[in-house]
Amino acid sequence: MAVESDQEPVAAHEDFVMVEHDAEGADRPLDDGSDFLAIISQYTETVSSSLRAISLDIHDNPELQYKEHHAHKALTEFLKDQKDWQVTPSAYGIETAFVAVYDSGRKGPTVSFNAEYDALVGIGHACGHNLIAVASVGAALATAHVILEKGLAGRVVLFGTPAEEGGGGKIKLLKAGAYKDHQVDISLISHPSISPDAALVCTAAYSAFKVEYFGKEAHAAARPWDGVNALDALITAYNAISVLRQQTQPGDIIQGQITNGGLRPNIIHAYSAGRFVVRSTTRARLEALKKRVYACFEAGATATGAELKLTPGGSYDNHMPNKALGRSYRHFFHRLGGEIPREDIDVIEAATTASTDQGNISYAMPSLSPNFWIRSEDKDGKQLGGPHTPDFEKAARTEEAHESAMRIAKALAATAVDVLTRPGLLAEAKREFDEMKREDQRALSQQ
């Protein structure tokens, strides 16, 4: 996921020892004296070196969407060595997806984690998916360890989700029934960036599509009136979109590329094409924006007489963080020495115009996708590039970044155990999720 931000990073995390640092009363989730964070932290430290080796292996062998064979093998072979874990490689007909399950044998909630491991063209793991993978694996293993040690009820499911970078691996798993088949109650994941630590990350909804215009060729000097100019249609639409931007809301983004502008300058162009992306803060707002953008393309066809063809591409829903899960996560993250703003500030500051297929998961079940800061700076402390830059690819390999990922693993596992041991938390998370869905349906019905 591309997380572009001008925000300065938080201070470096030099020490990840567990400290008592309670959040505001409303943020503190524990009410019955149960606390498993020490067990989680101690266990995570025992597997940290193994996870570090896997992270470096994935980082140093970058693979693109749906071709993550090396990462898939490294992760599934490691998980098969873990006692009582049932691992299904190449799950649901997706060659580089997997499902790993730990079942207590006692009826209870099912908590899940998503692991990502695909890379970017030309710049490798410049989105830090190697860190996402080991944070999720560490969290899943730590949660299972607490279940075993304390005799808790419930299940842990770890999904290996390929192709986050535009391929929508989670969406394919969702549509195939992976989350439904395993009766998942909540979904947890995390993401590194150069933005401050956050719990309630909101991402943008996006939709990509291809635009084509079909006109009629003619000699541009001798008989231009015989032609229908497909390039004029596309340029008219492009200019209309430029005018539309003045009347769009904050968070609405329209991006475009002309991929075919005709054959030669002395020909009335019979064909033109482009690729466009539309983003907005929610999927309901995205639908409204798409209607206005499509009208611009229709205007180009009307003005020139060219035939318009729109071909949908990939699309991701916006991520809707579950605040009930966020309160639990924030509490444990603070206990581990971190600092996240209070809820009302966090949900604003953590918003990003980047997109992820975890957004679609958040419309299927309560979801949380915290952000964690890693250092991308030169030797003098000057800020270097964030996700999707060569600087960040280097940052995602450091020991310090790994330690940050392990702290995230601990906080995610503690949140999952909180769900397993406090029925009221799961009920609250589901009530909030149901209300979010109702609001989404109301908004969609008004489009």
UniProtKB/TrEMBL annotation:
CDD domains: M20_Acy1L2
A family per Pfam: Peptidase_M20
One GO molecular-function entry: dipeptidase activity
Domain Peptidase M20 dimerisation, first and last residues per copy: 208-299
Source superkingdom: Eukaryota
Coiled coil: none
Family listed: Belongs to the peptidase M20A family.
Protein name: Peptidase M20 domain-containing protein 2
